Prior knowledge:
The protein has about 150 residues and is of the alpha+beta class. About 15% of the residues lie in helices and about 40% in strands. It contains three helices and eight strands, in the order ββαββααββββ. The protein is globular and about 40 Å long. The relative contact order is 0.19.
Amino acid sequence: MDGTEAETDSWVHLVVQGGEWAGWSMYGNDPFEDHAGPFYYRIAEDGRPVCAMRPEHKHMNGGGFMHGGALMTFADYCLFVIARDALKDSRSVTATFNSEFVGAVPEGSLLECRGEVVKAGRSMVFVRGIMTVEGDAVLSFSAVLKKTAPRT
């Protein structure tokens, strides 16, 4: 979802049909995120996107908690979901990414992310977000997304 996926008219949105994630959506055209996930999103009642995942054993570090790199990978996915309306007509990449690790994420927990577009300019979109487990903050982040080309 960073603008380097195969040339398509738009992002592929796959709606999950069954199981725990029924009704949630996922992007289906980013090979790295497909490998690193699964990651999901939906639009909450307030009209804002919420992203979620359940960390698996493959996401854990040697201490038994979610690896910082896995958290940052999920945060990068979330950036593009949060900013999708501001990016709908363009391809883009993450230009800057800042994060603060403020809690641990156990395997199997429900990890959620919410955020907002702080400002959407002509060529840059400023985003911030927070990840939580059971309402407790585990990661806060901010980033700038650079629009690279019109979406065809």
